[in-house]
Amino acid sequence: MVKKKQSSALNVRRKNTKKLVKTMIQSVILVLLGVVLFHAVFDVESYREPDKTTWKQQNGFIALSYFGVGRSGTSKLVAKSDLDEQLKVLHDLGYQTVSQQDIIDFYSKDKPLPDKALYLSFEDGRNDSSLFARPLLEKYNFKATFFSYADKLGDNKERKFVQPKEMKKMEKTGFWEMGTNGYRLSYINVFDNEGRFIGMKNENELRDKSNVAYYNHYLMDFIRDENMIPAENRDEMNARIGADYENMKKIYTEQLGYVPSVYMIMHANALGEGMNRLVTEANQDNIRGLFQIHFNREGRAYNSSRADLLNLTRLQPAPYWSTNHLLMRLREDSGEALPFITGNEEDSARWNVKDGAAQFKDHELILTSPPGRSGLLELKEAVKSEKLHVSAQATGNVVGKQSIYVRYDRAKDSYIRITLDNNTLQVEQKKAGAAPAVLLTRELDPVAWSSEDLSFDKASVYTYEQTSAGVSEEEEKYPINIKDERKLDITLDGESLTVRVDDEAMLDKRKIDDSIRTGTVAVEAEYSENNKKENIYDARFENMEITAGDRVLFSNAPRGWQGAADRVKSAVNAAIDWAIETF
């Protein structure tokens, strides 16, 4: 009886302890959220106008547009820390932001721009974008345009979107101008993966996008039937598209007091680029009547002085891009030889960049490939020991190639290469003067991802034959924005090779050619042809450690208290992110 009472008392104490810990964690989260909200509401600084009399440049400007900003980042939202790093680099390189009126005057009145002119914007109208981008605009005295959808305005149910009252406050600071992505995000002529006709759906009705194979945006085509034959005539199409623009005009006028001057049509790269001529004309008539600036295209950042105000282009940096990835893209678009960032100088000094750009950031090595080519990073120190061990977490995107070379001898062109390529492991050996020989090819366990991670990027007009055939096996593979995480463990002992992935032996003491005896360690990044949108790739290796015998040649892995502190920090960040998303 006494034992039962003691056990019961012990259980009560345990429950009370758990409640106390839970309450303390919740209190910490609420305090942190309160601090963030306090600063968002009461810390109001004003934009400092630049001295435009010093502006002399008349060649053009770059335009960057972020889909959204999150505290820690997601497959769709860039992390605040990454955005901070990117904006800091641009600021330090001398970029100055320009306003909508600056762009209008540049094209219509031949007024000059700053030497390095940047048009900055944030799409989709999200609260978190406003919250997390605001202090960065203040920090670098940058001006940005905040884009929204008209149908999200004045709706109390749409809590994650900024409302007109807040927009007006944002404008008063001088850091923000308003723009529009249109009336709404809606899809027509939708077919599923099996070629079945779904019809027309709005964004909220297409939560599970993984089953969608073909579709188009509401303003981009005639409404068609299951045989892809137009189900409306020209007059009906004109009236439907005109009503969309009229609804947008009505809502902005009522809610904001005016229609924004700048427009980014959804989706980009379609209007005037192969879509139906009559649908193009219907859109262009409405656009000319409502807007002064139109960013019609996406994929390139640079707009020259010869560009059309109603056919401008912007670059949308993806959340998974490193800062060097952005700089690599800007170098290609603008033709400027922008310098890359290296990060930790001590770690960087141990390596030679043979091609591409390398950043050593905290416990991560990020190697960015040049456009259309592979990037290569080579450890400076030669490996003299017979026994070599390399371990790392490979955390780059699934769609792309990240490789580790061991006994890499550039002079002889011999090596052992371990590659992760679109969720497939490949191990090769190359003897001097011979072609690479494959030792192993194995598809790894599937990478988990949510349909919410999927971004639509293949809107077009399809034939009946295409839609009825359903999606191909190649198209069913991973979206380009999905990250992977694989633990690699490579051991070379004499002529014996062992490769483990996620603690599972893929090769166990496999004999390699005895001519591959010497060489160093290298890592490689290469884009995948499965990525039709981007030919630059970031290979990422976290907690990498390279040892030869008992000697550590390189390590960026946290140790002791640092490792424990990182784990605690990660857990706290995850809890705060959960709270933000939930409440």
From TrEMBL:
Its predominant location is secreted
**UniProt entry keywords in alphabetical sequence:** Membrane, Signal, Transmembrane, Transmembrane helix
Q: SUPFAM superfamilies, per this entry?
A: Glycoside hydrolase/deacetylase
Enumerate the Gene Ontology biological process terms. Answer: carbohydrate metabolic process
TM segment ranges: 20-42
Family annotation (Gene3D superfamilies): Exo-inulinase, domain 1 (2.60.120.560), Glycoside hydrolase/deacetylase (3.20.20.370)
**One annotated Gene Ontology cellular component of this protein:** extracellular region
Looking at the keywords, is Signal present? yes
InterPro entries (UniProt xref): Glyco_hydro/deAcase_b/a-brl, NODB_dom, Polysacch_Deacetylase
Molecular function via GO:
hydrolase activity, acting on carbon-nitrogen (but not peptide) bonds
What name has this protein been given in UniProt? Polysaccharide deacetylase family protein
